[in-house]
Design goal:
3 helices
């Protein structure tokens, strides 16, 4: 009985992860532009903070 509940919980968590990951990843370009592009450049060329 306990192993069945654990199996159902594991499957439910796995399905939740599969469903939510693409939704969370859709705005990756905007996140990169807002938080990473200042140092890494818009094309990821890795500009140095030292000029």
């Amino acid at each position: 009985m306990r192993s069945t509940k654990c199996l159902i919980l594991a499957i439910a968590l796995g399905l939740f992860n599969v469903v939510t990951q693409p939704v969370l990843a859709q705005d990756g370009a905007a996140t990169y532009k807002a938080k990473c592009a200042a140092c890494h450049g818009t094309e990821g060329q890795g500009r140095s903070l030292r000029h």
